[in-house]
Amino acid sequence: MRVIVSGATGFLGGRLCTLLRELGHDVVGLGRNTDTGRDLETGGTRFVSVDVSQSPSESVLKELGSADIFVHAAGLSSAWGLREAFQQANVAGTRHAMAMARAAGVRRFVFISSPSVTFRFCDQADLREDAPLPKPVNAYAYSKQIAESDVLAASDLSPIILRPRAIYGPGDVALLPRLIRAVAKGPLPLLRGGRASTNLTHVDDVAQAILCAIEAPPQIAGRIYNIAGDEALPLRLIIESVAAKAGIAVRWQTVPWPLALSAARLAEAMARLQRDRPEPVITAYALGILAFTQTLDISAARREIGFRPQIRFAEGLARTFGGGAAR
């Protein structure tokens, strides 16, 4: 089977390319980082230097050739940034990826979305995929909502959308490293008694979920699936466990939720007044993640595509720090 993977020089895309090659598939990886691309080629992935946020040229389409599957894992992911940047990377980028998939004649398009599209400032336990989408919490979630709608409309590509929750593992340069930096800077706000819970998902489990989507029967087309570890863990436990692995003591400071949210909103407003719009110390979305339970129901993915998360948090954390990735 021939698989094209966008975002191949990123955390998830790179791991997926490796797994597909180990299974004997022909893999074409798309990305902008040519140094990482050379590493992929050493492992047997054919690398094509492409910025999917830009319309693909005829030469790129010709270089890609034909394929069976297109996995779109490229995108801009951040709790803060310009709406225009997210629109270009995540909306235009997804449309360009679908154009490449059509040119390659693929039979399935797998889109990696985000549970941020479902976020609300309230507890949401075991949230299902069919829950109505709220007003987007930020520009990132807005761009992903539009991209999901575009993908679902592309029935000719037999699309499947995956929403993996909080991906971590060896090679993670975002989630756990960002958390460690926040812990090291000073006390973290303890909101609503520290009772919020969430799921984390090891990168290998997400890669396996993508394989399940690739191999799913044609009648599954047009479906959205939550992807997550099967443990709902308290955020406080997650943070303290990660900090302990990094050798840092967590300091907590109890802060009333309304006061914390008002401070974050003010920090965001002040950042928007600055010319370069720097990311504030804390965003409302980040505070919301700390304050409210956000867990996913993965029963549909279990039942319909055979997804079974294998890596529990304790094991995943040991693998991550054993590889020296999160620091």
Description:
This protein has 327 residues and is of the alpha/beta class. Helix content is 44%, strand content 17%. It has a domain at 2-173 and 201-230 and 296-311: NAD(P)-binding Rossmann-like Domain (Rossmann fold). The strands form five sheets. A seven-stranded parallel β-sheet has the order 3-2-1-4-5-7-12, with helices on both faces. A two-stranded parallel sheet has the order 6-15. α1 (11-22) packs across α7 (203-215). It starts with a strand and ends in a 5-residue tail after the last helix. The mean pLDDT is 95.
What is this structure, in a nutshell?
This protein has 327 residues and is an alpha/beta fold. The chain has a domain at 2-173 and 201-230 and 296-311: 3-Layer(aba) Sandwich (Rossmann fold).
Indicate the multimeric state.
single chain
Which percent band covers the strand fraction?
15-25%
CATH topology of the domain at 2-173 and 201-230 and 296-311: Rossmann fold
Estimated structural class: alpha/beta
**Which H/E pattern describes the elements?**
EHEHEHEHEEHEEHEEEHEEHEHHEHH
Radius of gyration: 19 Å
Shape: globular
